[in-house]
Write a structure and sequence with these properties.
Aldolase_TIM, 303 residues, DapA-like, 8 strands, alpha/beta, lyase, Dihydrodipicolinate synthase family protein, eight-stranded parallel β-barrel
Length: 303
């Protein structure tokens, strides 16, 4: 399939790429009704790209059956209102099965979570992603890169073999490294998504990104949209006004190695009465003091 055939998918990546939370019911199961309501809120808020089974969705705490359920709920609720980028990962057969499932339901893209393995070689990284991408040649594939050692030339090598590798979620916290990686891989060849969300979006956009992922968008879609509109128009002072508005919220999420990354988002949603605050281990709910601070921040946004 030619790159022309992936134009819709490429356009969807050059946007706010929402990573929805996975709300849990009191008994610990996935809360289907709350999940649908949160998805509708994103769609009604103008969000056009959704990533079920992302890290903000607690991908690594979900069972295979729950990951399939989350994919099904998201695709069913979104209909033709959104482009769906389904998170897949774990061992190759599991990732391939998830990619096949996503394709069968009509998802246009899959995001491949970084390989969770203590020993990742650069050539092995290519092999891992190639096995998944070749299994679904008609689906756009987006590697999620958190490995600072990975060379941009390896990504180019992967795309030479798999033309359906069309975009990259780059989540190494180093704007200079991102700029070099993107140019080594091919700046115009891929859609570059700033994978560390709004705090890094201005610096990554200045280096060539055209989209960014967001967990904050679950709470305040308009805030995320304000930032991307500013960045698209090259208005960095306006983008940094949004950055200042969300700074404390994102600092709370990033503290202690991002220990409360999802917890803070769910706490904000809980403070607004939109879902329970529950998260699964190894995440944990916030202390009372932290809850009050998050609630105050969320209340201060024009939601």
């Amino acid at each position: 399939m030619s790159s022309v055939a992936f134009e819709t998918q490429r356009a969807a990546l050059a946007d706010v790429v929402a990573i929805p939370v996975t709300p849990f019911a009191e008994d610990g199961s996935v809360d289907r009704d709350a999940h649908r309501a949160l998805l509708r809120r994103l769609l009604d808020g103008g969000i056009a790209t959704l990533t079920p089974n992302g890290n903000t969705g607690e991908f690594y705490t979900l069972t295979p059956e729950e990951r399939r359920l989350v994919t099904e709920l998201t695709i069913d609720e979104a209909g033709d209102r959104s482009t769906i980028l389904v998170g897949v990962g774990h061992d190759v057969p599991t990732a391939v099965a998830s990619a096949h499932h996503a394709r069968e339901l009509g998802a246009q893209m899959v995001m491949v979570h970084q390989p969770v393995h203590p020993y990742v070689s650069q050539r092995g990284w290519v092999d891992y992603h190639r096995a998944i991408a070749e299994a679904v040649p008609e689906v756009g594939v987006v590697p999620y890169i958190r490995n600072a050692q990975l060379s941009g030339y390896r990504l180019a090598e992967l795309a030479d073999a798999c033309p359906n590798v069309i975009g990259v979620k780059y989540a190494v916290p180093d704007a200079a490294r991102f700029a070099a990686f993107a140019r080594d891989a091919g700046l115009e060849r891929f859609v570059w998504v700033a994978g560390l969300a709004e705090p890094y979006a201005p610096s990554y956009f200045s280096a060539g990104a055209t989209g960014f992922t967001s967990g904050l968008v679950n709470v305040a879609p308009s805030v995320s949209l304000n930032m991307i509109e500013a960045l698209r128009s090259g208005d960095y002072p306006a983008a940094m006004k949004v950055w200042e508005q969300i700074r404390r919220f994102e600092e709370l999420r990033a503290a202690n190695g991002s220990a409360n990354n999802v917890t803070v988002v769910k706490e904000a949603l809980a403070s607004l009465g939109l879902c329970r605050r529950d998260v699964r281990p190894p995440s944990r709910v916030l202390s009372e003091d932290e809850r009050a601070e998050v609630a105050a921040i969320a209340a201060g946004w024009s939601i």
